[in-house]
Amino acid sequence: MTEHEGLTWRNPWFRRSVVSLVLLTLGAFLVGFVWLPSVHGDFTAEGLWASICQAAGVPSKSSASALDSKHGPLSTEVVLERSMARAGASDAVGRGATLALNCTMCHGAQGMSVSNAPNLAGQYPEVVMKQLEDYKGGQRRNSVMQALARSLSQRDIEDLAAYYAYLPKARTAPTTYDEQLPALVRVGDPMRNIAPCISCHGGVDQKLGTPWLEGMPKDYLVGQLSAFKDATRRNDSQAQMRNMVRAMTEAEIQDVAAFYARKASAGEK
Ligand code: HEC
Ligand code: HEC
Question: What is the rounded CA–CA span in Å between residue 165 and residue 106?
């Protein structure tokens, strides 16, 4: 027997090792691509091919659409543009003031709420526009505001935004670094991926579409933060607020809300 004959099918050792290699491969394939995915929590029983794709990490379209139907319309459809942040023409302000007579009952005569409705005086125009459009389209849920917003035209929304942006900022000065700030407002918490509130909500920078918070009623702020946390409010584009609030505790929500609300009484004096 030459040494070449050693690696032919007639060699029982060679035969055995080929057969066991095939069986091992098949076994690993079944365990890795069929059995493990099938006992995994989100196995969808869509057949072998789907399990193989899922196990290999291919994003499945069906799970994304399942998420949609479970949570209703996702996020917002409003595309924020710089031009929305421009102060409106003076006739827009006048027309907005007339329309706003329907809003004073809750948002106050000068846009400063005396109930727990949000203040609108001096709110950035693109914020008022975006929120009204989200109520109108059902991306932000509130029965009163959805009903009201549905009857507003595009022009009405623009004029109301112009009017409220024009109202004197009876609220207090923006948050700055020169005062005592809760840690989350000043520096956030990098370990939990919480960016400082001040970096989006004014003070250091106002990101387009980010609301003015100073002087808002505390209950309103707590309500909105909790709604972002349990995702009953999810009209924030790219889940910006949901991502901030997710890791925050109840006590921290109370704390930052009290901080932003506190500015109201400081300013009224
Ligand atoms: C019956 C009371 C009521 C009336 C009338 C009302 N609002 Fe509201 N509005 C609310 C409440 C309460 C909220 C907060 C709802 C929520 O939790 O989403 C709100 C929210 C808003 C917001 C979102 C503000 C923010 O900071 O996110 C805007 C903008 C707004 N209202 C505009 C208007 C306009 C414009 C009118 C008049 C056409 C109006 N509202 C009439 C009660 C009212
Ligand atoms: C990455 C930017 C960013 C950071 C950081 C951020 N926010 Fe926001 N926040 C937003 C945006 C954008 C919105 C508007 C969402 C929308 O379109 O409805 C918002 C909305 C809110 C609202 C709802 C206000 C209203 O009137 O509708 C509250 C309350 C709020 N933020 C509080 C906070 C607090 C408190 C912090 C710090 C712990 C914080 N945010 C950090 C971007 C940010």
Answer: 17
Residue type, 242: R
Domain 183-268 fold: Cytochrome Bc1 Complex; Chain D, domain 2 (1.10.760)
What tokens appear for 227 in the block? Answer: 């709604």
For 100-108, the CB contacts below 8 A with 24+ separation are 100/160, 100/163, 100/164, 102/148, 103/148, 103/160, 106/144
pTM of the model: 0.79
**Is the minimum distance from the CB of 97 to ligand 1 under 6 angstroms?**
no
> 82-166 maps to which CATH number?
1.10.760.10
Residue 120 CA, ligand 1 centroid: distance in Å: 8
Ligand 1: centre distance to CA 156 (Å): 14
DSSP 83: G
Residue with tokens 């995702």: 231
Q: Are 82-166 and 183-268 in the same CATH fold?
A: yes
| 126 contacts: CB under 8 Å, gap ≥ 6 | 80, 81, 84, 85, 161, 208, 209
Beta carbon of 211 within 6 Å of any ligand 1 atom:
yes
CA angle 200, 83, 107 (to 5 degrees): 65
Among the atoms of ligand 2, which is closest to the Cα of residue 225?
A: 29
Model pLDDT, residue 231: 94
244 lines ligand 2 (CB under 6 A): yes
For residue 194, the cross-strand partners are 189
Crossing angle of the two packed helices 143-150 and 125-137, in degrees rounded to 10: 100
pLDDT digits (tens, 9 = 90+) for 11-43: 888 889 989 999 999 988 888 777 776 665 555
